[in-house]
Design goal:
The protein is α+β, with helices and mostly antiparallel strands and 68 residues long. Helix content is 32%, strand content 9%. A two-stranded antiparallel sheet has the order 1-2. The protein is globular, with a radius of gyration of 11 Å. The N and C termini lie close together (4 Å). The relative contact order is 0.29. The structure holds FE2/S2 (inorganic) cluster (FES). The site of FE2/S2 (inorganic) cluster (FES) has 13 residues, from loops.
Length: 68
């Protein structure tokens, strides 16, 4: 997942990925470039429900722990 990529590249980032990918937070919220957003798998209903709670939701918002 994108969360794993960030963690592997940078080590733990304080507050990022707080629930470790269990869809219980929105701390892994990212904005993808439109081209990347369109190439990724579609968000599940569970991800969309959690994204509704994210601050600053945008058309290309995703949860990094769900992007593969
Ligand atoms: Fe919590 Fe992604 S790490 S929802």
């Amino acid at each position: 997942t994108l969360l794993n990529v960030v963690m592997n590249a940078n080590g733990p980032v304080e507050g990022y990925g707080a629930c470790e990918g269990t869809l219980a937070c929105t701390t892994c919220h990212v904005y993808l470039p439109t081209e990347a957003y369109e190439r990724m798998c579609q968000p599940t209903e569970d991800e969309l429900d959690m994204l509704d709670l994210a601050v600053g939701l945008a058309e290309t918002s995703r949860l990094g722990c769900q992007v593969v």
